Amino acid sequence: MELLKLATEWAKAEVFSTRFFILFAILFLIASIGFWKLGVTDLAKAYIIPTLVAGLLLMTIGLGLFYTNKTRITQFEKAFSANTNAFYQSEIERTEATLKEYTIVFKVIPILIIIAALLILFINTPLWRAISITTIAMLVIILLVDGTAYSRIETYHKHLELLNK
């Protein structure tokens, strides 16, 4: 029963965490509307589409993860009831795979941030500046939220390993 409680608490924490993607998405969408309605300079007008796209991407990520983790809570109960050992093994395998994926994410996103920063330096048009700055902001948000998610799943994985001993 401790295994089910541990898995459920992890999934509930993930559901809470994904709300930050949704919150930041809303902020990006509000910013896009603000630039559209109030922007008078070329740079302000250039931000309309990049902030809209970033908001939509973050909203998609947030809603997708929210739905996935919300349904996972009920699936945990069913899988645990059906076969505790199989549930434990599947969680170990899933957390190991997820930890490997995060390793890739934490290497790729900083490279993308560097590329976006270089674009700011070398391409001095309002649209490319807006795209680069918005991309950096969005990727930093993804790093912040995924950083906490990585820490949570790493702790969850360690607890799972301790349950086996």
Task: Detail the topology: elements first, then pairings.
Layout: H1 2-38, H2 42-46, H3 48-82, H4 84-122, H5 126-164
Structural class, please? mainly alpha
Strand portion: under 5%
Taking all Cα atoms into account, the compactness measure Rg is 20 Å
Indicate the overall shape. Answer: elongated
Describe this entry's structure for a reader.
The protein has 5 helices and no strands. It has helices at residues 2-38, 42-46, 48-82, 84-122, 126-164. The longest helix is centred in the middle third of the chain and has 39 residues, at 84-122. The protein is elongated, with a radius of gyration of 20 Å. The mean pLDDT is 93.
In short:
The protein has 165 residues and is mainly alpha-helical. Helices cover 94% and strands 0% of the residues. Helix 3 (48-82) packs parallel to helix 5 and helix 4 runs antiparallel to helix 5.
Q: Notable features of this structure?
A:
165 residues; 94% helix; mainly alpha; elongated
